[in-house]
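Supplementary Methods S3. Input chains for the assembly prediction are listed below.
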Amino acid sequence: MKKNLIFLAATFLFMQCSFAQLQLNGAGATFPYVLYSKWFDVYQKKTGIQFNYQSIGSGGGIKQVIEGTVDFGATDGPMNDTQLAEAKTKQGTDILHIPTVLGAVVVTYNLKENISDIKLSPEVLAKIFLGKITKWNDNAIVELNKDKVLPNKPIVVVHRSDGSGTTYIFVDYLCKVNEEWNTKVGKGTSVSWPVGLGGKGNEGVAGQIKQIDGAIGYVELAYAVKNKLNYASMKNKAGNFIKPSLESVTTAALNESKNMPSDFRVSITNADGKDSYPISGYTWLLVRKEFKDEKKGKALVEFLHWAVNDGENYAAELLYAPLPKKVSELCEKAIKTISYPGKK
Amino acid sequence: MNTNIQPQKLHSKNIGDFIFKNLTLFFAIFILIIIVLMVYEMYSSSAVSREKFGLSFLTQSVWDPVQEEYGALPFIYGTLVSSFLALLIALPLSIGIAIFLSEIAPRWLEKPLSFFIELLAGIPSIVYGLWGFFVMVPWLRENVQPFLIENFGNIPLFTGAPYGVGMLAAGIILSIMILPIISSISRDVLKTVPRAQKEAALALGSTRWQATKIALSYSRSGIIGAIILGLGRAFGETMAVTMVIGNRPTISASLLEPAYTMASVIANEFTEATSEMYLSALIEIALVLFVIALIINSFARLLVWSVTKHSDVQGKM
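Predicted C-alpha cells for the full assembly:
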C-alpha cells in the first residue's frame, strides 16, 4: 500500500515536471482585463507560455508587486514614490511602469427630452460635481449649448462607489481644471464626493443614469460605446469641443508624449493639442527591473516587446485606445533595460 | 493478572468512543479558534487606524480617503437603521406567515408554501440586488416616493428628492431577504408546541386566536432566536444593499436619502485601498461590524434568558 502511494506520488511529481509549462502570474487592474485576456490567449497559442492574471483591482496589483507574490502587476494609477521605495526595500529591484493601452472616461447623462451631444466645459463639469450647478438650464450650461433647449430639471450626480481607476482619471482631470476641487476634494481611486449617488461599477453608474431623468455621471469610454449611452463633448485645453473616441484619446497621448518622463508615470488628463480628448489616461503593467529567474525574466521581456508592438493591434477592436507609435518606441527602450541572469 | 485484563479490555472497547469524543470536541473548539483568530487578525491589522483615530473613529462622520480622514459613524448608522427598518417590515409578515403555516393552513397548502419560502431563502443576494435595482427602485421612484413626499413631506422621515435608491429601498430589499429566515424558523418553533397545550387551551374554551397566543408565548425564545438570525443576515448583507442604498456616507433623518452600510463600504473600497491607513480603516470597520453583531447577539441571549426565566409558560396555561 505504502509502496503504491510512493509510486503514485513519484509519478505525479514526474508528470508535473515533464509537462510543466512556464507560467507567469500577474494581478491587478480590472479595466484592461479584457484586452490582457486576449493578449495572453493569443500569446500562449504562439509561444506556449501560460499567463495567470487575476483582475483584483489596481490597489491589489500594487500590493502584490510590493510583496513579490506575482511576476507582474497591472494598474490604472501609477505607484507613488513611497510604494516604489517600499518595493525596492522588499524586492531589491526597481519597478518599471510599462504603458500598454489608454482608457478614457466619458461624461454620460440622461435627459428624457432626448438631447444628444451636449457640450460641457471643464469649469461647468467641476461645478456640477461640486454641487454648485444644480439645474440643467443653468446659464453656464445653456451658454455652451445655445442650439438646444435645456429643461428646468434638477441635476442628479452619479459617481462610482467602488474604488476604481476610472474615478482616478476623472478626478485627476477635475483637480487640474478646478482649483476648488483640487483643494476640497483632491484625487484618488475613491474620494469624498461633495454630492451625488454612488453606483457600483460602470454598470451601477450607467444603470442609475438610465433610470433617473436628469442624471449625469462618468463611465469608461468602452462601456459607454458598447451600451450606446449618451455622452458629452468636452472642451479641451485648446478650447475645442471634442467627442470622446479612440482616436481623440490616442491623439491626446501623442500630444502629451513630448513630456513623457522616463519612468512613464504620467497623467495625460487635460492634454495639449487641438484634437485631444481631455479625460484619458494610461494603464500600466508593473514589472521588476531585475529578474532573478532567468526563464521568467526572458519570457516576460519577450512578451512585453510583443505586447507594445503587435499586441496594440488588438486594442481598437476591444475598444481600448492603442499607444501612439512614439510611445511604443519609448516603451521598447525601457523594456530593453530589464535585466535577468544570462541576458546578453 | 486477571484484574489487569479487565481495564485493558474496557480501554480497548472505548477507544472508538474516546476518539469520537475528542474529535467532536476538536471540531467544536475549532469554531472558537476561528473566531478568536479572526478577531485577532482584524484587531492587529487595524492598529494603524485605531492608534490614529481612537474612539473618534466611531463618532466622526467624515470618510475621505484622499485626506486620510476616516470616521465610521455614517456606516454604523446606515447598517443599524437599514437592518431595523427591514426587521420592522419583515417581522409582522414573518410571524403572520409562521402562524398561518403552523396553525391554520390546511396540509395541502402548507407543504408547497413552506417549500417556496425556503426557496426564497436560497436565492443568492446578487439576484435580489438586481431585482431591487431594476424593478423595485424604479417603482419606488415613480410611485411610492412621490406619494410619500406629497402626503408626508412635512415629516422629516420623508423629505428629499425621489431618487429611488436610498435607505427605504435598502430596508425593503433586506426585509424580503430576511423574511424567509424568520418565518421558516418561527414556523418550525411553533410546530414544536405540544399538541396537548393547544388542545387544552381550546378545551377550556379559548378561541383560536387565544390558543395561538399561548403557542406564541410558548415559543417566544425560539422566535427571538429567529429574529436574531434574520437581523444577523441583514447586518452582513452586502451586494444587494450596495446596489440600492445609494452609497453615500451621510446621516439623514429622511428614509428617502441615500445612505451607506459597513459591509457595503468594505466591499466597495477594499480592492483599491492602497495606503496602509486606508486598509487599516476598512479593517477597523469590519471589526466594528463584528463587535456590533456580537453585542446584538448577546443582547438577544439576555432577552431569551430573561423571557424564559420570568414568564413561566406552563403556569400561564
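The two ends of chain B are 62 Å apart (CA to CA). Confidence is low (pLDDT under 50) at residues 312-317 of chain B.
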